[in-house]
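User: Here's a structure from my thesis project, written as structure tokens. My advisor, Dr. K., wants to see whether a designed sequence matches the one we expressed. Can you design one independently, without my sequence as a hint?
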């Protein structure tokens, strides 16, 4: 029993966005969030402000920035489609949405793998950047002697802890905030397009069935009217025959 409930959570198609928002406003909210996320990350990855771009592959950062920039028109298209409620456009938006999120996940996974591979380089870069805090290692800036100043070992340990924490946060961000949410949001958009297509097909079937029922009713009315006309014609013919037989007999 528990296993069936557990499987239904992941196998059953969602009926609402985030368990409480209807599909249409929920999809619109997702498109707005995707638009904001695209602008923010595109400006972040394509600029030199991102500090980690010094320690990771610049090519991956540029590709992520370009892809997030291309996500912006996809989100605008999604807002337009959800307002218009066109079945074909919804299907196209669902495909584009899933492709965009899949490519983003692949590039973020590559960035995360490179972060793990170049972990020692990141630690060394951090230690070199913070070496000025140690008075004995300061060659360009005269640092006054302070008994509470950090030692080289303390700076190195702080860099190791900072890099490990950054890796943990990036891993959590990729698994929880990107992979699970991206898959769920993609499932919501896909379910919305399929449910809208199902509603339109059901509406067509209802109209067709109503037309068939109306056609059958009109056909039955025509048959009944024809039967009535046949009955009236037969009765009139019998009356005429009886009248002619009486006249012949009288003669």
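Assistant: Designed independently from the structure alone:
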């Amino acid at each position: 029993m528990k296993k069936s409930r557990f499987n239904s959570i992941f196998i059953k198609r969602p009926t609402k966005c985030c368990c409480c928002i209807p599909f249409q406003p929920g999809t619109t909210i997702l498109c707005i969030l995707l638009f904001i996320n695209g602008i923010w990350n595109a400006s972040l990855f394509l600029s030199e402000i991102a500090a980690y771009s010094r320690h990771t592959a610049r090519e991956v950062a540029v590709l992520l920035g370009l892809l997030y920039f291309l996500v912006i028109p996809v989100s605008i298209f999604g807002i337009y489609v959800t307002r218009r409620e066109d079945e074909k456009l919804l299907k196209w938006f669902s495909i584009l949405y899933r492709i965009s999120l899949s490519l983003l996940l692949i590039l973020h996974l590559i960035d995360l793998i490179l972060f793990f591979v170049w972990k020692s380089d990141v630690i060394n870069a951090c230690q070199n950047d913070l070496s000025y805090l140690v008075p004995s290692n300061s060659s360009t800036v005269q640092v006054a002697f302070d008994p509470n100043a950090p030692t080289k070992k303390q700076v190195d340990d702080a860099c190791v802890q900072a890099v490990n924490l950054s890796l943990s946060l990036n891993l959590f961000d990729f698994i929880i905030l990107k992979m699970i949410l991206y898959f769920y949001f993609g499932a919501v958009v896909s379910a919305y397009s399929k449910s809208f297509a199902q509603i339109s097909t059901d509406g067509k079937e209802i109209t067709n069935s109503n037309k068939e029922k109306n056609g059958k009713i009109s056909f039955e009315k025509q048959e009944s009217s024809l039967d009535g006309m046949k009955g009236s014609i037969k009765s009139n013919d019998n009356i005429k025959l009886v009248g002619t037989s009486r006249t012949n007999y009288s003669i």
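When you compare it with your expressed construct, this may help: The CA atoms of residues 109 and 174 lie 8 Å apart.
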